[in-house]
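Quarterly update from the structural biology core.
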Amino acid sequence: MKYIIFDKKLDYDGSQISSLWGYNIADVQDDSIIAFRGACDVKIEHMIDLEDRKADESIISPDMLHFIIEHFDSTDLKLAYARQRLFTSIVFEILTARGVSARREGDDLFASDKKLTVSIASTSAVSHKIHFGINVVHDFYGNLHNIGIRGNAVDDLMRTIAQRYTSEIEDIEKDLRKSRPLDVI
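Predicted structure, tokenized:
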């Protein structure tokens, strides 16, 4: 599992959740998490959540941390959503350790009763993908600035989250290689 942090601003429009985006933008052919900061404006043609699409919802933020995760070991949507929940839990733990009073509801995080994050998981013929976004600033929704995470702490948070997810997945892979299968009766 590789993680890449983009130092330059990159806006998210939903196209980044397409399979092999990491290969196209950063020559990454392994399982990966790519983190970057930029605005968010998901175009309707890239909207994966059918509830949001049917309700003609918009997913817009002037400034967000974005995490694009791609795993090639499965195209199982249930596994993609399980990993999305694992990622959400990791972000929740990191924020809580930094003194943020937050709550998790499924794949969403809330701070001061305002939704702080957006997330989606999906599959393709070759992989499954997850997008997870955290508002850095926002006029209506929860955001990192309002909970006291600003300046260099935002970049540090992005790096910490990417590293922690990578470590968790690598630890799971190690556990898989040390566990013997159950005996067949």
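The helical segments are 21-26, 50-54, 77-97, 152-176.
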